[in-house]
Write a structure and sequence with these properties.
Largest sheet: 5 strands, parallel
Order of helices and strands: EHEHHHHEHEHHHEH
Number of domains: 2
CATH architecture of the largest domain: 3-Layer(aba) Sandwich
Radius of gyration: 18 Å
Number of helices: 10
Strand content: 5-15%
Number of strands: 5
Oligomer: single chain
Distance between the termini: 8 Å
Strand order of the largest sheet: 2-3-1-4-5
Shape: globular
Length: 198
């Protein structure tokens, strides 16, 4: 079974690429969904976060208040490092469990979808890491259309992500979703790459 990491900036086409992998029989593991499920369900994660950030991150029902946690972590590099160190450990363990389940099911591949795939250490577990890239202006237009947000907000989100050179230097393969691509031509590019990898 192959483990394929998918990364790249928001709006580049990762969701389309992951859809192609699903069609080819891969189990898709979304690291964001794993994180949100763990925040809601994992008492050990809740305990580790409360120990580091204090009981003020809990809401009235004892659940993690993501906004309260975000206020403490974002804008404070040391706190953000601690948050990432704690959460990545739990996320990687859960990804490992889900990968083993897919292996037992006889899946041909697991696709790990993670914005911080390379930074979190998850990329080191992959047989191949595919960076999905697209021109920045095109990504900004896609984010605006998809999420109904202003150009300024979409641009600030795009600016906060690593440049293309970061992905080009660290990924095993680059999947380009260019200005000339339609959703169909991009899907065909993705299908050709993933069929070869599997």
């Amino acid at each position: 079974m192959k483990i394929i990491g998918i990364t790249g900036p928001t709006g580049a086409g990762k969701t389309t690429a992951l859809g192609v992998l699903e069609e080819l029989g891969a189990e898709v593991i979304d690291a964001d969904q794993v994180y949100h499920a763990l925040l809601a369900e994992s008492a050990p994660l809740r305990g580790a976060l409360t120990e580091r950030f204090g009981p003020g991150i809990l809401d009235g029902s004892g659940q993690i208040d993501r906004k309260a946690l975000g206020k403490l972590a974002f804008g404070n590099p040391a706190a953000l490092r601690d948050l990432n160190a704690i959460t990545h450990r739990f996320i990687l363990a859960e990804i490992g469990r889900r990968t083993e389940a897919a292996r037992r099911e006889g899946r041909p591949a697991v696709a790990i979808d993670a914005a911080a795939l390379l930074e979190s250490g998850a990329g080191e577990r992959c047989d191949a890491v595919v960076g999905v890239l697209s021109p920045k202006e095109l990504r900004i237009r896609r984010i605006m259309a998809r999420e109904g947000i202003s150009e300024d907000y979409a641009r600030s989100r795009a600016d906060a992500q690593p440049p293309d050179a970061f992905y080009r230097a660290r990924c095993s393969y680059i999947l380009e979703n260019g200005l000339e691509d339609t959703p169909e031509t991009f899907r065909e590019k993705a299908r050709a790459l993933f069929a070869a990898l599997l």
